[in-house]
Structures are given as C-alpha cells and as structure tokens.
Amino acid sequence: MLLKYKIKSVSNLIKINIENKIMIFKRKNDLNDKENLMRNKRRWSLLGLLLVALMVFGACSNDDKVEDTDIEGNINIVTSFTIIEDMAHQIAKDKANVYNLVPTGTDPHEYEPLPDDIKKAEDADVLFLNGMNLEGGESGWFYKMVDSVNQKEENVFELNEGVTPKYLTDEAEQVEEINPHSFLDPQVGIIMAENLRDALIKVDPDNKDEYEKNAEEYLKELNEIDKLYQEEINSIPKERRILVTSERAFQYMTERYGLDEAYVWEIDTEELGTPEQIKGLIETIREKNPPVLFLESNVDKRPLETVSNETGVKIYDEAIYSDEIGQKGYEVDTYVKLLKHNIRIIKDGLSE
Ligand SMILES: [Zn+2]
Fold first, then answer.
1. What are phi and psi of 78, to 5 degrees?
2. In the sheet where 75-81 sits, what is the strand order?
3. For residue 73, how far is its CA from the centre of ligand 1 (angstroms)?
C-alpha cells in the first residue's frame, strides 16, 4: 500500500527521506532486528535535522542538474532518469520543458528526491518513469513522491507499459524480481518511445502533429538500430556470442538477439561481487570461453578485474553503458548513441 503524504512543509519532506531510508534498511536487513531499526531511525532523524539546517541557509541546491530554461506556454515534463529525459527531448523538442530527477552517476533504484525535484513534480503536467521496478516499484521513491504532492494518477506514465517483464533469479533459480533494464533492448526502446509520444498527445493535444512528426523520425532511427543489432550479432561466430558483464543488465537484449549472457551479480542493489559470485562467474568462463569481458560505465571495476586475472580473459578497453547515458557533451550522451556504442563494442570485442 502506498502511504499518503502531503509535502507542504520541510518537516514532511524530511519524513519522506527518513521513510525511504527505513524502507531500504528493511529490505537489506533482518526485519526482526528492532534495536538496529531504532538506531537507524535515530541516525536518519539527525540527518533530517542537518537537512533543515542546510535548507535554512539556502545551501541545498542541486548543482548536478543543468536546468533547461523553461519556456512559458510549454508543458512541463518530469522524467525519472537520463534515458527517459533524452527520449522526452527527442519527441517533444521545443514544445516542452523537461526536468530530470536522477542524474548521471546516481542510482535510480534508491534515489532521494531533493526539494527542487518535489517542486517540479508538483507542478508537472506529465511525469514519465521506466517502471519495471527501476524506480523501486509501487512503494519506491518515485510513487511516494508523486503521492506526496497529490499528482493525478492520469499524469503519470510508465513507459514500459506493454513490455513483457523478465525476471532475475537467485542461486536456487527461484524468481526474485523484475529485471528493470529492458531499455537496453532497442525493440523495447521503440515501445517506450511510442508510449511517450501517445502520452504527450494525450496531455497536450494541441501539439499532436509536432509530436507525431518528431516520433516518426525517432522511431525510424530506432528501427534501424534494431536491424543493426541483429546483423552485427549474426556476424559474430556462434561460439563467440557471449556477453560477460558485472551486472545482469543485458537479459532483454541478449535473449532478443541470440547472445548468451554471464555476469558477476544480478542487480546493482544487491550484494556486489561476493566471493561466491566471483567464483561462479570464473566457472562459467572456464566452461564457455568468452573472447572478452565487458565492464560497465558505472560499476566498481574490481570484481570483474579479479575474474579477468583468474581466467586470463581480458576486459575490453571501452566501457559498456547499462544504467544511464553519459553527461551532456560527452561521447555517449543520448539513448541512440548509447545503443550504437554498445553494439559497436560488443561486435568489436567478440570478433577480435
Ligand atoms: Zn543496473
């Protein structure tokens, strides 16, 4: 069940931060450990007080986010993370003001909205999220924030609507949770772009023609990328078609185009690079002989380095992107560039 909050004051904002932390804490630790829970509560209360102090002195700004200059008369879009921010820009172009929540370099699973974020969410005409558990699911930070500002449900769109989820499994092959990384599969990107277009038309029908035109060009590009993925992967010798990464982020993409996958850990929010996980991957590598390993742009490189040292299989010298696009002005700063970058290094790495 979602808890209802009204954030009209600083104290309520802090309450949300504390609730978020407690929720995360509950998931990671033994629920029955009351003493620890109380200790954590106290710790976060203190942090809350510190936050008040920062806000009073006006120091609580968000320097990482370069805000677009808002144009009056435009609709206001809020996006949950960088890939959707880029998609919104591509399809709305100059008809919307886009404000993004989770910046590059920050984990979208366990984000804590800042005062600016909450203000923007309150004023938004439309809000886009990935869904599929990326933003913590039904009781995660995103829906909690939306609820707290009394946003209307009909203004919130999960762009993965209509995508069949794939599930992460534990060691005993038991289903655990939805893998949120569907967007690394270009065919899912197409569905997300279509959903975004349709949502924009719904909330801003006056600009329907513009959104349709922009989306058509964008979808054409994504369809070409889909073909490119299939061609490039088909051109890799069969015994070399295996993608080894740190996180199991490429499940959708590899199953779609016929690659085998191997990884150190299932998802970034769980335990990362335990001795058992590393041992497991080393065994898989000895069995399947991948030509190369791929390191993601946003993970600790040490676990994969250990695997590389133990097996003698080298890590490809360019990073693969799994959770975000690069900062604006850098090489991989759009979703289209991310998809093209990934397939280029996969093809090169596995063909060498
Ligand atoms: Zn990830």
1. -115, 130
2. 96-102, 75-81, 126-129, 156-158
3. 36
Question: What is the 246 CA–ligand 1 centroid distance (Å)?
Answer: 9
**CA 25 / ligand 1 centre spacing (Å):** 20
pLDDT greater than 90 at residue 190: yes
**Residue 32 reports pLDDT greater than 50:** no
Ligand 1: centre distance to CA 290 (Å): 22
> What is the Cα–Cα distance from 337 to 333, expressed in whole angstroms?
7
Task: State the distance from the centre of ligand 1 to the C-alpha of 109, rounded, in angstroms.
Answer: 9
Burial profile 3-23: b = 16 or more Cβ within 10 angstroms, e = fewer: eebebeeeeebbbbbbbbbeb
CA atoms within 13 A on the CB side of 94: 1
The answer on pLDDT for 60 being more than 60 is no
pLDDT band at 47 (very low <50, low <70, confident <90, very high): low
CA–centroid distance, residue 241 to ligand 1 (Å): 21
pLDDT at residue 352 in the model: 82
Domains and CATH numbers, the chain: 75-228 (3.40.50.1980), 236-351 (3.40.50.1980)
153-167 pLDDT, tens digit per residue, is 999 999 999 999 999
Question: Could you tell me the distance, in angstroms and rounded to a whole number, from the CA of residue 105 to the centre of ligand 1?
Answer: 11
At 328, is the pLDDT very low, low, confident or very high (cuts 50, 70, 90)? confident
Bridge partners, residue 129, by sequence: 158
How many whole angstroms separate alpha carbon 326 and alpha carbon 141?
23
The beta strand positions in the chain, using DSSP E, are 75-81, 96-102, 126-129, 156-158, 167-169, 175-178, 242-247, 260-265
| 66 Cα: distance to centroid of ligand 1 (angstroms) | 23
pLDDT surpasses 60 at 111? yes
- Ligand 1 center to 176 CA (angstroms): 15
Q: How far is the CA of 162 from the centre of ligand 1 (A)?
A: 21
Centroid of chain to Cα 41: 28
Determine the pLDDT at residue 288. 96
Residue 107 — pLDDT band, cuts 50, 70, 90? confident
Give distance in angstroms: CA of 49 to centre of ligand 1. Answer: 32
